[in-house]
Amino acid sequence: MKLIHIENLDIQEFFDTPPPYAILSHTWEKDEVTFHDVNQKQVDGKAGWIKITSFCKIVNEYLLDPVKYVWVDTCCIDKSSSEELSEGINSMFRYYQEAVSCFVYLADVVYSDPSKPVDLSFERSRWFTRGWTLQELIAPTDLIFFDKGWQRIETKVNLASRIYTATNVDEITLISGDWSGASIARRMSWASTRETTRLEDIAYCLLGLFNVHMPLLYGEGSRAFIRLQEEILRQTDDYSLFAWDASQAEENIAHIGVLATHPRFFKDSGSIEAYPVAGPISISNLGIHARLSFKKNATGQTLVHLPCGFAGDVDSVVVLGLNLFQAEPVILSRARSKFRVSSTSEILRLDHHSEFYLLRTSRAVQSMVSKCCLTYSYIRKDYDRFIPVRLHPRQMWASNESTRSMTLTLPADGDRMFKAAAVFWCAAFEGCFAVI
């Protein structure tokens, strides 16, 4: 772990237990300094360096027992090393958790009159909208907010109600510092309105919140958030992970998986809590294997209840609508609808308990690009005639009498079996034959 010495401002590395340190939380602006900038003394005049030196001075002023070291994310991780970057991101929650104190710098807030409460610019600060600052809010035990000029605003505990308004993180979690009892859905809801510069970071910034460690693969896009959920499932049987709003799924999705592609789909899931009695969940190449109560509705849709419901309402249960994706073995996908909450009495009316697979990831509408060509010839040119009378799937076949060919357009993905058939009428023997 790399730390900055408050007095000489040099970066020192500690391989075992680090000394006590304070930590900075902020939003990145222009002209931030990197590890190499500090190491090579190329920091003079940079706004990011002025912020760091001011932070070091404030630490000495406000801590009753001043520390000698501080940690700042811009320059205490050598981002040119992929190994160090991965270790730093996977350890960042712990860095904030183990800090003596966390100083939050709000660059867009001016607290001009300390005799009065800070105005609404506090809740509107950009700091409350960024993905990385969620863990920086929750992890530290002692957290103090400062304005643009390093004027002290107040502590996290004393501003808990206003922070709840800005973030939807409940006051109990903010005051106690214990988020372990919050369901997966509730924790996801905390990140639902937050943004990151890179798409993958919306998953990586949540690793510590779910006690997950996984490699960083920049370039994988939304697959990073899928991997995060898969790792969560390997550690928990909290079915609230599936309680998200599928009605907002992308329009090009033909079959919706039970794993969301972004935390924004959990925006309305903050009140969902998991029930302690739940069946095991396992992941395989077929999908997510689960045993759940279910019934069929009038349209043939499968309704399953999840062992979770509204917080404080023990008679509530989350119900998901599922569609058949594959018949053998049974694989179900999410219906394009929001989850609903019903009463536990409905469980008693459910027809069956069964084991089945849930489609993990969504499948887009397939583009038709691959083609298969069937050609034929006549033995007796004037007598033999082949006439296509039945084609399946009809819209995927095209015939050309002049070239004596039939063209079948195939799904672009070749990873599954595809069935097609063509039935011809043969005038020579007054009968039909089929090609399957």
UniProtKB/TrEMBL annotation:
Chain ranges of the Heterokaryon incompatibility domain: 21-108
Entry superkingdom: Eukaryota
Record domain DUF8212: where: 223-247
Pfam families recorded: DUF8212, HET
UniProt protein name: Ankyrin repeat-containing protein
